[in-house]
């Protein structure tokens, strides 16, 4: 079955609560998107708000407080918000990649696989019945002579030594204390936590979930989104093959890709859309397929979206394609349309700017169109 690229975009917009917007909460959005990146808390709030017909300021923090979401290091080693009952599948596949066993990782962060195992055991013990700040957790660890030399790495905001522990379900972030992050055992903090399933069970949950939001997609696109291409290729192929007739293949722009079999009829019937949306920084619509997806983002414009230090700009989406970027400056929202790209209708951009302002409980900004 051949699928038109514009139909793919329209289908993804619908599946991601972007056209139409959903009558949904933060947990439902995070579940559908297979997580919402939360390195920048305000970006996570925006990602939820742009998908809700009636956005509510603070929706993400409320869902975290109710235990409907958990914050942990997940896809690509970045902080994400995930429903606790769904998180284990993605974390299990991240753990199965065993990134910390690669020589390059060991050289960069100075810990052997055996030491990571010891660290996991020690952290599990320290967090067994309490929630600790980073300072408290590190103090408890470096008091043990085995971990004293890791003091600097453990205190680093990059948290490289803690990420493998998150993937193994040893820790997650807890409620902030006096503005400082805390850490806890997921099973102690989250009643909905179900632990980590075995790898085949995890793949059977995670791959269809991903394709249900970002399909059609290749195994390589899935792995780039999940582990930055760290899954062993035979294992990756086996995961997809193991799903059998739950998946179907389609052709998009001359390339074969996978969808969920249950989505075939809906995808084939989908028609292009002219919908305009303003999406915030690090939005999953961009991160799901990745900024190298030239069907969504022209290669010439990629540096304007994927910036230095891993920053992903807020984007203008028109008809499913990224047509520009935007930023706020005081009471002004400035939209920069990419060179050679038709500017979206001003009325549509103004409506989007008003929606974002309402979600943040701010006055409606003045729109300035550049390019």
Automatic annotation (TrEMBL):
Q: Which InterPro entries match?
A: AlkZ-like
**Pfam assignment, any one:** AlkZ-like
Question: What PANTHER family does this protein map onto?
Answer: LMO0824 PROTEIN, WINGED HELIX DNA-BINDING DOMAIN-CONTAINING PROTEIN
Protein name as catalogued: Winged helix DNA-binding domain-containing protein
């Amino acid at each position: 079955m051949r699928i038109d690229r514009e139909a793919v975009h329209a289908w993804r917009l619908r599946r991601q609560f972007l056209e139409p917007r959903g009558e949904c909460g933060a947990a439902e959005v995070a579940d559908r998107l297979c997580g919402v990146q939360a390195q920048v808390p305000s970006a996570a709030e925006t990602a939820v708000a742009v998908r809700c017909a009636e956005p509510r300021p603070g929706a993400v923090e409320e869902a975290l407080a109710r235990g409907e979401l958990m914050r942990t290091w997940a896809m690509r080693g970045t902080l994400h918000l995930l429903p606790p009952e769904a998180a284990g599948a993605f974390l299990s596949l991240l753990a199965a990649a065993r990134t910390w066993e690669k020589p390059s990782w060991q050289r960069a962060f100075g810990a052997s696989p055996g030491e990571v195992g010891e660290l996991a055991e020690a952290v599990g013990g320290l967090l067994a019945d309490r929630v600790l700040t980073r300072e408290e957790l590190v103090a408890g660890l470096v008091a043990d002579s085995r971990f004293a030399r890791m003091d600097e790495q453990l205190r680093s905001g990059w948290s490289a030594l803690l990420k493998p522990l998150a993937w193994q379900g040893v820790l997650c972030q807890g409620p902030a204390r006096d503005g400082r992050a805390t850490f806890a055992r997921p099973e102690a903090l989250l009643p909905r936590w179900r632990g980590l399933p075995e790898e085949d069970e995890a793949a059977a949950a995670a791959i269809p979930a991903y394709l249900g939001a970002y399909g059609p997609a290749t195994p390589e696109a899935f792995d780039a989104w999940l582990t930055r291409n760290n899954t062993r290729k035979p294992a990756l192929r086996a995961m997809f093959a193991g799903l059998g007739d739950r998946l179907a293949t389609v052709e998009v722009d001359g390339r074969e890709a996978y969808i969920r079999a249950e989505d075939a009829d809906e995808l084939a019937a989908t028609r292009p859309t002219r919908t305009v949306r303003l999406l915030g920084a690090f939005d999953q619509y961009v991160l799901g397929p990745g900024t190298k997806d030239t069907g969504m983002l022209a290669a010439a414009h990629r540096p304007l979206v994927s910036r230095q230090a891993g920053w992903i700009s807020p984007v203008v989406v028109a008809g499913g394609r990224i047509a520009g970027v935007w930023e706020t400056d005081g009471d002004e929202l400035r939209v920069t349309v990419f060179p050679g790209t038709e500017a979206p209708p001003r009325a549509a951009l103004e409506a989007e700017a008003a929606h974002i302002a309402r979600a943040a409980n701010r006055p409606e900004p003045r729109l300035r169109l550049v390019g």
